[in-house]
Design goal:
With 425 residues, the chain is an all-alpha fold. The protein has 2 domains: 192 residues, Growth Hormone, Chain: A; 189 residues, Up-down Bundle (Growth Hormone, Chain: A). It contains 17 helices and no strands. Helix 1 packs antiparallel against helix 7, helix 8 packs across helix 14 and helix 11 runs antiparallel to helix 14. The longest helix has 48 residues. It is globular, with a radius of gyration of 24 Å.
Length: 425
């Protein structure tokens, strides 16, 4: 009996080894296409990021020509420059709800389809009504779609690239910043080539369409959402850590949108000619791309991000304030400090979504909260600068205001940089 028991155990062990080997052999070829799919997904996410700012910067690039055409009243110009940023905050909280209901990848696909539709509608002419209805409707669709993509992209990186957070965070945030640069840099040459501001705006619908078609493959293969997981994730609205991250994002957004809107007028008022001011803004955006590319990699490697966050907040606020108040002979130094700081600051704030959460559902909840509040309230930075300039006739007080904003960003950058996750508090 003992001998037979040993034989049975030996046979069982042998069968177990064979089954394990067969499973290993079967898994090897199955993992290869999975890696290819993951690489394909990474490329798609970066390309989506590349389409998230062209709608804003392309409109600004031909704003003078739109005004000169006389087809759009001045009140509408103000509306079209402020509403998109406001919509980033309005629609951001909706993204987690849609992601739980339909799945994040399908929501990304739907948002890209809406963005493409908005870019096609925006320059169209509506008979006797002219261009105004298309501009308003198209711009609103673009703002809503970009808000959804802004929120869901970080959670997708958290979900699908947990061991490459720094690399993927850097790539997609750099793509977002680069999209603003490309929209600003290539829209006017298209206008010069075609003689039509409508064609210059329409141009940006085609990259969005290409990425939408590319992402269909990813969305179709995405797993269906389980009902049991619909209400997953920590309650971010009751988390101090989540509020620290959100307020860090808010102060970042106040500076970021103000730089986009007012840096060139500030430089012009200081006596710099239009061509040189444009070159300086372009150089600032290029440095933003570099800062946004490397900041997530560095942030992910640090034990915590307190010193890193504070350093970036100080760089950005000093760069902006000195561009207004500092010696004009050193303006290129201030522009470089501002560009590197702002790009890295934006990327660091978005990277905190991944570093301060334990799972993708909490990440999308935090992303919706911080971008809803951050963009919704942070967009008032541009209004603050406008009010200061209108009241005083100069930008001088704006420089001091952004030193104060830098203090706020430093405080909440320190608090959000502590090694804690949402739900622990």
């Amino acid at each position: 009996m003992i001998g037979r028991s040993r034989e049975v155990r030996g046979l069982t062990d042998t069968l177990g080894r064979v089954i394990r080997e067969l499973r290993t052999q079967d898994a090897t070829p199955a993992n290869a296409p999975s890696r290819r799919r993951l690489a394909f997904l990474g490329v798609c996410l970066v390309l989506i990021g590349f389409n998230l700012r062209t709608a804003f910067s392309s409109f600004a690039a031909v704003l003078t020509e739109i005004r000169a055409s006389g087809s759009v009243p001045e009140w509408a110009i103000s509306l079209l420059t402020t509403v998109p940023v406001t919509l980033l905050g309005v629609f951001a909280p909706l993204a987690p709800v849609l992601a739980r209901r339909f799945g994040p990848k399908r929501v990304l696909l739907g948002a890209m389809a809406v963005l493409t539709l908005g870019l096609f509608i925006r320059p169209s002419e509506w008979g006797p009504a002219g261009h105004l209805p298309g501009l308003i409707l198209g711009t609103a669709l673009c703002g809503a779609a970009i808000a959804l993509c802004n929120v869901i992209l970080p959670s997708e990186v958290k979900q699908d690239f947990p061991h490459r957070l720094g690399l993927m965070g850097g790539l997609y945030t750099a793509a977002i910043v680069a999209s603003a640069a490309f929209g600003a840099g290539f829209t006017y040459p298209v206008y010069q080539a075609t003689g039509s501001w409508n064609a210059a705006l329409l141009f940006w619908a085609f990259p969005a369409l290409a990425v939408t078609l590319l992402f269909v493959v990813v969305a179709v293969r995405a797993r269906p959402v389980r009902r049991a997981a619909e209400h997953g994730g920590a309650n971010v609205w009751r988390s101090r850590t989540a509020w620290h991250v959100t307020l860090y994002m808010l102060f970042q957004a106040m500076t970021s949108f103000s730089v986009f809107a007012w840096l060139s007028p500030i430089l012009r008022e200081r006596g710099i000619d239009g061509a040189t001011a444009g070159l300086m803004v372009s150089a600032s955006i290029v440095l933003q791309v570099l800062g946004s590319l490397f900041a997530p990699v560095l942030a992910a490697r640090f034990w915590d991000q307190r010193a890193f966050n504070v350093t970036l907040a100080v760089m950005t606020s000093l760069g902006f304030a000195l561009s207004v108040l500092g010696p004009i002979e050193l303006v290129w130094v201030w522009i470089a400090l501002l560009g590197l700081g702002q790009g890295a600051l934006t990327a660091a704030a978005l990277t905190l979504i991944m570093l301060r959460t334990r799972d993708a559902r909490t990440a999308v909840n935090l992303s919706g909260m911080m971008q809803g509040v951050g963009y919704g309230v942070g967009s008032t930075g541009t209004l603050l600068v406008a009010a200061i300039h209108q009241a005083t006739g100069a930008f001088t007080l704006a420089g001091y205001a952004f030193l104060a904003i830098g203090v706020g960003a430093s405080v909440f950058g320190y608090l959000s940089g502590r090694r804690r996750t949402v739900g622990e508090d």
